[in-house]
Amino acid sequence: MAAPHAVVGVEAGSRETELPESDPATGEVKRPQFGTRFLTDPRQVFQHNAWDNVEWTEEQEASAKKKVLENSQPLPTEKQEEYEGRANEYWNDFYTIHENRFFKDRHWLFTEFPELAPQCSLNNDSHPQVSGADDSQQDSLEREQRIDVAALSLTDDDAPGSSATYRILEVGCGVGNTVFPILKTNNDPGLFVYCCDFSSTAVELVKTNPEYDPGRCLAFVHDLSDVEANYPVHDGTLDVIVLIFVLSALHPDKMQASIRRLARLLKPGGVMLLRDYGRYDMAQLRFKKGRCLSENFYVRGDGTRVYFFTQDELHEMFTEAGLEKVQNLVDRRLQVNRGKQLTMYRVWIQCKYRKAPVQPAKTEG
After folding, report:
1. Looking at 18-32, 69-83, 195-209, 292-306, which range is the least confident one?
2. Of 9, 34, 42, 84, which has fewest CB within 10 angstroms of its CB?
3. Rounded to whole angstroms, how far apart are CA atoms 125 and 208?
């Protein structure tokens, strides 16, 4: 398919910008799971807001690689160290300026990540039966895991979420555009959501939001790259960890250790969910000279930074941390502004990786 010419209409290195469609009858935003709308006739490109799994021509991919190479001269070491040292300051400034006006709630969350939706049981829905284990062995294993969590609750009665039966942690929560949809949609009485951000300004915006409920949620300041810093939960107690457009903000040298630290927090069978920028995304191609920090790692005009991943890079990080692949997909999307007749090529990567369930003890005979 000959790709339509892309005219970029957003700021270089801009944060996540998706264009959900509305149901004309109800006005509610509806976003089907990606991979279900295909552009077969380029003349129809402006019929919808977005097209899935857009095939790139060889010429388009070669042009993208050339563009990246042209702007790949890294900044001097002292400038890179300045952006690293002042990262917290830049993100605080960002949220001070934009508050909660920049990001929109992520309406696609429960379509792509049903693990966040009500009544989701990781033990029943997402875990394959352990090979060689019968139903009674599996039930016994799950009971043992619940007892372990209950024992933790007994010793940490005052800890937020200590009595929860389903625990979610979002890292890099921003102003709550993932957390609040989860709290509003998932009415599971056993749910507790932990959320953290590098920016104290962002966390304060979450805590002052009228929808923030300390009985179901704990927001706290945390530096993901500081692997020695403690989390308010014990290792092996989380069902789900969410990383949405956050790992890309870390220095590449700190990513692996950060993922390894998070993996320790998952209980057996728990999952880590990620959605982030893919290589040659429109945002990467928009960077001008003087913005490259290292290979595929850039600084925006406001001082915040962003990395653009490949599937293999992320797979290596997760598996090195001891997690098993459930999903690792590239979402190549053509977004369309029908009013301005603009097309924008986006490349995102979506991953799900799981900590292996505990193997039941083998019985004789």
Report:
1. 18-32
2. 42
3. 35
Go through the chain and tell me how many residues it has: 365
User: How far is it, in rounded angstroms, from Cα 183 to Cα 221?
Assistant: 19
What is the C-alpha to C-alpha distance for residues 165 and 190, in angstroms, rounded to an integer?
Answer: 5
For residues 205 and 100, give the distance between their C-alpha atoms in angstroms, rounded to a whole number: 8
**∠ Cα 68 252 229 (to 5°):** 155
Percent with pLDDT over 70 in the chain: 67
- List C-alpha distances in Å: 93 to 15, 89, 98, 108, 304: 15, 6, 9, 28, 10
- Residue with more model confidence, 334 or 347: 347
Cα(71)–Cα(308) distance, integer angstroms: 14
Residue 142 tokens read as 């799950």
CB atoms within 10 A of CB 151: 10
The dihedrals phi and psi of 278, each to the nearest 5 degrees, come to -100, 160
| CA separation for the pair 149, 17 (Å, rounded) | 38
d(CA 282, CA 214): 39
Residue-wise pLDDT for 21-43, tens only, equals: 444 334 444 444 555 655 455 55
Amino acid at 143: R
More confident residue, 32 or 355: 355
